[in-house]
Description:
By secondary structure, the protein is an alpha+beta fold. The chain has a single domain (4-102), classed as 2-Layer Sandwich (YaeB-like fold). The protein is 33% helix and 29% strand. It has a five-stranded mixed β-sheet. A two-stranded antiparallel ribbon has the order 3-4. The protein starts with a strand and ends in a 7-residue tail after the last helix. The relative contact order is 0.21.
Amino acid sequence: MACKVVFATTDAGKDFDDLDGFLKKEASKKIAALSENPLLGKPLGNKSGMNLTGYYKLYFAKKKYRIVYRIVKGDIEIVEIIGIGKRDKEEIYKLVAKRLAQDEGSTLP
């Protein structure tokens, strides 16, 4: 069963928009695959003191980039993309942890 994939924040959408043409194409393929199988990514947990339990990572561009997302269950399953970015020095995980901390009290956990 297909699910709906959305960007959880405008920042996550901007992450996608900021990718160059090749990377955007690769990310789009992975996002389309997520709509068919939301469990395609690998679960995240505690990454260097950043609690990302309940979130998943999905690789693209030869594992240099990550899509970090969570699955929201309701009437329909929704995949919320929290961030897209480079793996280098855990850059994407730091970015997502910062967004989650800023968005406490909003729709993000």
